[in-house]
């Protein structure tokens, strides 16, 4: 008997590097039964991305396109690699291009997904591009998803949020990976990085303007006045990293900073920190904030962080960037001993707020393949896991 081919879903991304959206997708993709359902990814990067090899090993395709605003390219990709049960775009206003191509190619389920609350482009062309793309998104999407209502409002507009096709979609993480502290690994990490017996503040994120790394240096300076041994650890890569490293050197802060690059041992690193800092200028949700809370780590965040990121564990403190680095430093010193150690309480918060991968898969399967229009039956979900 001939084996039935898996259902295929096409995700449209910029590149599958270790960002919040991409990590969310991989958390979901890894858990699927790949003989039953497969993900393919359209990428606009000519370079090999962090997750590309793993995607291929799981049976998915990474489809590299070159013209970002070409409906034709996506259309031909769908026809060549499909058929697809759904197309799911994560590329802000570019979702309008993907949704139009999906409609023309006959894909029945077309999902636009909002992940951020701001677009850096501000040219005259960009200003006309946004309303055009928003119109295409509303015309050709069958479903609208957002990691926060603020992100949804930014991409879809007020009219989009009022549609029956709109839904809040909590970002999912494998939170159990972060719950428990491996004392040996944490101590080994501290020894390797010269962090033993020191107060450690940290941040995880790409070195881009939105993450506000320069403000982190100002905070470090203020903290060092209170405790000269305080250390700042920064995880990530990006175009502004070299500039920040040079500034740290000029300000004589380099002895108090560790630039760790991209890492796979994030649970260990989070358990090393005393306070997590997230002073973003704008943010969709901040997946790493969920990971930090799963680790029981106190977090100090800017007013740009969406309220949906707070699991109500008493770990999140929101402070305006206008308060300045000295105020942030004072708050840090007050929070260094406020880690949440009750793992059952943390687990309950994740399940209550819908941030588990199993719940995320259930919602997506309902969109991609369910004909019921309601919640996808649990027995069918586990067939796909």
TrEMBL record:
Residues 188-310 form the Glycosyl transferase family domain. GO terms for molecular function: glycosyltransferase activity. Pfam families: Glyco_transf_4, Glycos_transf_1. InterPro entries: Glyco_trans_1 (IPR001296), Glyco_trans_4-like_N (IPR028098), Glycosyltransferase_grp1 (IPR050194). SUPFAM superfamilies: UDP-Glycosyltransferase/glycogen phosphorylase. Residues 19-174 form the Glycosyltransferase subfamily 4-like N-terminal domain. This is Glycosyltransferase family 1 protein. It comes from Virgibacillus salarius.
């Amino acid at each position: 008997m001939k084996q039935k081919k898996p259902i295929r879903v096409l995700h449209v991304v910029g590149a599958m590097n270790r960002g919040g959206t991409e990590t969310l997708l991989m958390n979901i993709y890894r858990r699927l039964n790949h003989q039953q359902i497969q993900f393919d990814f359209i990428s606009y990067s000519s370079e090999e991305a962090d997750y590309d090899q793993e995607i291929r090993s799981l049976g998915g395709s990474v489809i590299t396109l070159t013209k970002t605003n070409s409906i034709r390219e996506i259309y031909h990709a769908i026809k060549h690699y499909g058929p697809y049960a759904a197309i799911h775009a994560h590329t802000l206003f570019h979702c309008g291009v993907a949704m139009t191509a999906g409609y023309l190619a006959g894909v029945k389920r077309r999902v636009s997904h909002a992940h951020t609350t701001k677009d850096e482009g501000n040219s005259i062309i960009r200003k006309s591009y946004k309303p055009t793309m928003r119109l295409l998104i509303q015309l050709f999407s069958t479903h609208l998803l957002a990691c926060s209502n603020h992100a949804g409002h930014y991409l879809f507009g007020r009219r989009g949020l009022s549609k029956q096709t709109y839904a809040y979609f909590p970002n999912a993480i494998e939170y159990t990976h972060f719950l428990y502290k491996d004392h040996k690994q944490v101590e080994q990490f501290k020894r390797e990085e010269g962090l033993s017996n020191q107060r450690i503040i940290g941040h995880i994120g790409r070195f881009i303007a939105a993450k506000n790394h320069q403000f982190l240096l100002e905070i470090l300076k203020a903290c060092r006045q209170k405790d000269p041994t305080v250390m700042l650890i920064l995880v990530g890569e990006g175009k502004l990293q070299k500039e920040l490293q040079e500034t740290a050197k000029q300000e004589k802060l380099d002895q108090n900073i560790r630039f760790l690059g991209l890492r796979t041992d994030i649970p260990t690193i989070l358990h090393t920190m005393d306070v997590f800092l997230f002073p973003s200028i704008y943010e969709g949700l901040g997946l790493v904030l969920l990971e930090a809370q799963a680790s029981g780590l106190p977090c100090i965040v800017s007013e740009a962080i969406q309220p949906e990121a707070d699991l109500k564990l008493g770990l999140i403190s929101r402070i305006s960037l206008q308060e300045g680095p000295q105020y942030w430093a004072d708050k840090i010193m007050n929070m260094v001993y406020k880690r949440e150690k009750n793992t059952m309480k943390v687990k309950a918060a994740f399940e209550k707020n819908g941030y588990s991968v199993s719940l995320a898969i259930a919602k997506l399967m309902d969109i991609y393949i369910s004909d019921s229009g309601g919640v996808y039956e649990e027995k069918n979900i586990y067939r796909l896991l």
